[in-house]
Amino acid sequence: MHVAIHVAIAENGVIGRDGGLPWRLSTDLKRFKADTMGKPIIMGRKTYEGIGRPLPGRLNIVVTRDKAWRAEGVEVAHTLEAAIQLATVRGRRMTGVDEVCIIGGGEIYAQALPLAERLHVTHVLAAVDGDAHFPPIDPDAWQVVSSREIASGEKDSHATRYTVYERRREIV
Ligand SMILES: NC(=O)c1ccc[n+]([C@@H]2O[C@H](COP(=O)([O-])OP(=O)(O)OC[C@H]3O[C@@H](n4cnc5c(N)ncnc54)[C@H](OP(=O)(O)O)[C@@H]3O)[C@@H](O)[C@H]2O)c1
């Protein structure tokens, strides 16, 4: 099982504002839904509360330090490592699943980046104001394996570039 990050990032590193997304990207949400469908998804408690419900058709795992926190339709983990472990064990039993998806937000991405092997990044082609960020993607550590430009559709606030990165293997 690979650990993969799925994220949309503005040119200035912003990923969120006031607990929500600072853009409307309907085309990208459809692509995100298709890419994550049937897989385990891991998110921070704040991202879960921003969405307000489990994402259908996926094993939802919420990470919180609050031992009393619960929500219907989601599994709870108290460390990121425990969430990845749970997702890996459960994912192995799901047919055709080879990826654990980390879906945010800023706190979780910062901790997951060193553990990830693949990044699915929607680059939002604008600088946007916000209060949650993604760390810089180091080109020495990550290579682009595919990239495509997506024009802004009727229900999209911005044009985007969808890029998949894989961690460079160390040459010894
Ligand atoms: N652009 C995108 O692709 C994207 C994707 C997802 C989210 N977002 C945005 O990101 C923002 C939310 O990000 P955020 O950084 O504020 O919050 P977050 O990462 O979603 O959640 C943070 C919470 O996760 C829990 N947590 C974090 N690390 C933990 C650990 N090691 N062990 C146990 N629990 C841990 C804590 O919950 P407790 O406080 O309950 O202990 C913490 O308060 C929102 O604006 C959202 O819309 C953007």
Give a short summary of the structure.
The chain is 22% helix and 32% strand. By secondary structure, the protein is an alpha/beta fold.
List keywords for this structure.
172 residues; alpha/beta; Dihydrofolate Reductase, subunit A; 8-stranded mixed beta sheet; two-stranded antiparallel ribbon; 4 helices; 32% strand; globular; binds NADP nicotinamide-adenine-dinucleotide phosphate; one-carbon metabolism; DHFR-like_dom_sf
What can you tell me about this protein's structure?
- With 172 residues, the chain is an alpha/beta fold.
- The protein has one domain (2-167): 3-Layer(aba) Sandwich (Dihydrofolate Reductase, subunit A), CATH 3.40.430.10.
- The protein has helices at 26-36, 45-51, 80-92, 106-112, and strands at 2-10, 14-16, 40-44, 59-63, 75-77, 99-102, 118-124, 132-133, 142-150, 160-167.
- Strand 3 (40-44), helix 2 and strand 4 form a beta-alpha-beta unit.
- It is globular and about 40 Å long.
- NADP nicotinamide-adenine-dinucleotide phosphate (NAP) binds next to strand 1, strand 2, helix 2 and helix 4.
- Residues 2-167 form the DHFR domain.
Low-confidence stretches: none
Helix content: 10-25%
The run of helices and strands is: EEHEHEEHEHEEEE
Spell out which ligands are present: NADP nicotinamide-adenine-dinucleotide phosphate
Q: CATH architecture, please?
A: 3-Layer(aba) Sandwich
Number of domains: 1
Strand portion, in percent?
A: 25-35%
Output the CATH homologous superfamily: Dihydrofolate Reductase, subunit A
Major sheet size, sense and barrel closure: 8 strands, mixed
Structural class by helix and strand composition:
alpha/beta
List the total number of helices: 4
On the 0 to 100 scale, the average pLDDT is: 97
Q: Count of DSSP E strands?
A: 10
**Any idea of the CATH topology?**
Dihydrofolate Reductase, subunit A
CATH hierarchy class name: Alpha Beta
Shape: globular
